[in-house]
Design goal:
The chain has 2 domains: about 30 residues; about 150 residues, Protein Transport Mog1p, Chain A (3-Layer(aba) Sandwich). By secondary structure, it is an alpha+beta fold. About 15% of the residues have low confidence. A hairpin with a 6-residue loop joins strand 7 and strand 8. The protein has a 7-stranded antiparallel β-sheet with strand order 3-4-5-9-8-7-6, with helices on both faces. The chain is built from 4 helices and 10 strands, in the order H-E-E-E-E-E-H-E-E-E-E-H-H-E.
Length: about 190
């Protein structure tokens, strides 16, 4: 068989590009479906609620407060709910309105209950459930006394709204544990 000069190279390049495109399409199909992440968590905690079961793996050094539900609290080992300066928690609720409306309603409720306050959208962190609609916001309640800051990621999944929160007295306290918060978001999924 006789080949034109360079045709074998062009064919190989075409085949590689086609295979890479096919692999990328398959990868995006796997990761784009909300609530379909296929994962195995090393040390999951199962947050059981009447609305569903959430599998969450706390970051190293954090523990689930098994005495509280609605929301489910995580704090540093050796602390408790009353003594912790920084907490993470997951609150599960039914999503009864469009996602954007739920986000707006929550911001308005926060601002009416805490004056003065601000709500600012933040860059959305990576999630285990990459195909789900989500938003991250920084809620700052500046009232004195009892000021606090919460970084909140809202995730719409399976008809539910997951509020994943890290809460502290100041933004600096929240930032100290931001990597732990990211770990939780990377290790959180709906079981049913």
């Amino acid at each position: 068989m006789k080949y034109l000069p360079g045709s074998r190279v062009r064919f190989c390049v075409f085949a590689l590009l086609f295979a890479a495109g096919l692999a990328a399409a398959q990868d995006s199909a796997v990761t784009s479906a909300c609530g379909k992440a296929k994962v195995t968590l090393d040390h999951p905690e199962y947050l059981t609620d009447a609305l569903g079961i959430i599998a969450a793996e706390p970051p190293s050094g954090w523990v689930l407060d098994k005495s509280r539900r609605k929301p489910f609290y995580f704090f540093k080992r050796g602390e408790n709910y009353e003594s912790a300066r920084t907490l993470m928690y997951v609150n599960v609720e039914r999503l009864e309105v469009p996602f954007r409306n739920a986000v707006q309603n929550d911001a308005e409720s926060f601002q009416s209950n805490c004056q003065p306050s601000t709500v600012r959208e933040e860059k959305k962190p990576e999630l285990l459930e990459r195909g789900c609609e989500a938003i991250t916001q920084l809620f700052s309640c500046n009232r004195r006394p009892n000021a606090f800051v919460e970084l909140v990621t809202k995730i719409s999944i399976g008809g539910l709204l997951l509020n994943v929160v890290i809460s502290g007295e100041t933004r600096a306290e929240v930032e100290v544990y931001r990597k732990d918060y990211q770990f939780l978001l990377d290790h959180l999924t709906l079981v049913n």
